[in-house]
Automatic annotation (TrEMBL):
Species name: Oriolus oriolus (Eurasian golden oriole)
Organism placement in taxonomy: Eukaryota, Metazoa, Chordata, Craniata, Vertebrata
Record membrane topology: Single-pass type I membrane protein
Disordered: annotated span: 183-208
GO MF, one example: transmembrane transporter binding
Descriptive protein name: SCN4B protein
GO cellular component: voltage-gated sodium channel complex
Transmembrane annotation, as ranges: 140-161
Gene: Scn4b
Compositionally biased region (Polar residues): 183-193
Domain named Ig-like: residues: 2-126
C-alpha cells in the first residue's frame, strides 16, 4: 500500500519552469518565461494562470483537451502566449514584452486540472532586470577571470615541467644516497612555492 501511494504521487500533475528558476533580462527587451506541465491521466477543461509577485494576474488561459490549443481568457497587454499543448510538451510559456526594472520579481505559473481530482500545482521563476552596461561589465569580468585562470594554469604546468627536468638532471649527476635527499628537498620547496604563487595569483583578480 505505501508503494502504491508513492507511485501515485510521482505521476500526479506537475508544473515545471525548467532546470533553473532564475531568468535575467536586459531593460527594454522581451523575455521568455518558460513553463510546462505534465499529467498521467490527461486533462479536461484545464485552467492555467500566471501571477506576478503572487497576487497580480497577468495571464489567464483555458485548454479543453490535448487535441486543442489554449484559449486566452484574459492577459496583460504586454504579455504574449507562446506555448502549445497539441505538440509533444504541454507548453504554457509566455513572453513579457518591453521589460522594465519594475518587472523584476517572482512569476508563478499555476495549473488546475479538474479531470485529475481537481489537482493543482505551480512553479515559480524569478526575473532579474539589468541595464546593458551592467551586462557588458559582467562579460568583461568573466573574460579577465578566464585569462588569469589560464595564466595560472600555464604557470603551474611550467613549474611541473621544471620539476621533472631538475629531477632528471639530479638523477644523472648525483649518487644514489645524495640523490634521494636532494629530490625530496627539491620537491618540497617547489610544492610550497607553487602553492604560494597560486594563492597570490588568485587574490589579485578579486581586488581588481
Amino acid at each position: 500500500l505505501p508503494g502504491l501511494h508513492i507511485f501515485a504521487i510521482a505521476f500526479a500533475l506537475e508544473v515545471s519552469v525548467g532546470k533553473t528558476n532564475t531568468v535575467m533580462a536586459l531593460n527594454n527587451s522581451n523575455v521568455l518565461l518558460p513553463c510546462v506541465f505534465s499529467t498521467c491521466i490527461g486533462f479536461q477543461d484545464l485552467v492555467f494562470t500566471w501571477y506576478f509577485n503572487t497576487t497580480e494576474l497577468i495571464y489567464h488561459g483555458k485548454i479543453k483537451n490535448k487535441a486543442s490549443e489554449p484559449i486566452c481568457v484574459w492577459h496583460n497587454p504586454r504579455v504574449e502566449f507562446v506555448g502549445s499543448t497539441t505538440k509533444k510538451d504541454n507548453n504554457i510559456s509566455i513572453v513579457l514584452n518591453n521589460v522594465e526594472f519594475s518587472d523584476a520579481g517572482k512569476y508563478t505559473c499555476h495549473v488546475h486540472n479538474p479531470k485529475e481530482k481537481n489537482a493543482k500545482h505551480n512553479a515559480t521563476i524569478f526575473l532579474t532586470v539589468v541595464h546593458k552596461m551592467v551586462e557588458t561589465d559582467n562579460t568583461v569580468t568573466l573574460i579577465i577571470v578566464g585569462v588569469v585562470g589560464g595564466l595560472i594554469g600555464l604557470l603551474i604546468l611550467f613549474m611541473l615541467i621544471k620539476k621533472v627536468v631538475l629531477f632528471i638532471i639530479k638523477k644523472t649527476q648525483d649518487g644514489k644516497g645524495v640523490k634521494e635527499c636532494l629530490v625530496s628537498s627539491s620537491g618540497n620547496d617547489n610544492t610550497e612555492n607553487g602553492l604560494a604563487g597560486s594563492k597570490a595569483e588568485q587574490k589579485a583578480p578579486s581586488k581588481a
